């Protein structure tokens, strides 16, 4: 993933139709917790884990009770984690149809195309049984938005630091 973390935040704003500085807010919030590197002045390349953290943070909203790192540790019935599934779909975004997150209690659902062409669902739940609320608030990212986001991240380049132009003084 050649994009910088701040670029991923602005791409999230654009492709998920968020209010413009929202992605930057989530970057700053994740940096304050220590989940993202904080190197002022040097653009850090975003890994798949950083992109997944930002995507989950944008989907669940500003909920301090449920950090986005908890969602990435959710386990499916096949044994994989949500982070591994999102890394797989960032590499091949055309196979994802829908990503849904329960924003009140940690749970996730992914609808995708299998290699043989069938449509499958994979649900992700916490390893320990947690009491679930009867109220559900589900955030959904459809396949078109995810595909456009993944392509934009893949095609963007890291900004380079260049020297400032010097003005010529004419005396």
TrEMBL record:
It comes from Labrys okinawensis. This is Uncharacterized protein.
């Amino acid at each position: 993933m050649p994009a910088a973390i701040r670029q991923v935040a602005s791409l999230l704003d654009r492709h998920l139709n968020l209010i413009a500085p929202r992605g930057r807010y989530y970057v700053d919030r994740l940096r304050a917790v220590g989940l993202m590197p904080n190197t002022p002045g040097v653009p850090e390349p975003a890994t798949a884990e950083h992109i997944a953290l930002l995507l989950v943070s944008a989907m669940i909203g500003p909920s301090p009770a449920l950090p986005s790192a908890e969602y990435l540790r959710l386990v499916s019935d096949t044994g994989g984690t949500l982070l591994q599934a999102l890394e797989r779909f960032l590499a091949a975004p055309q196979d994802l149809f829908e990503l849904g997150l329960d924003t009140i209690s940690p749970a996730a659902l992914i609808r995708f195309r299998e290699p043989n062409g069938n449509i499958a669902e994979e649900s992700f739940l916490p390893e320990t049984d947690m009491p679930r609320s009867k109220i559900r608030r589900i955030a959904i990212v459809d396949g078109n938005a995810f595909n456009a986001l993944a392509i934009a991240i893949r095609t963007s380049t890291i900004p380079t630091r260049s020297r400032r132009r010097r003005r010529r003084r004419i005396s």
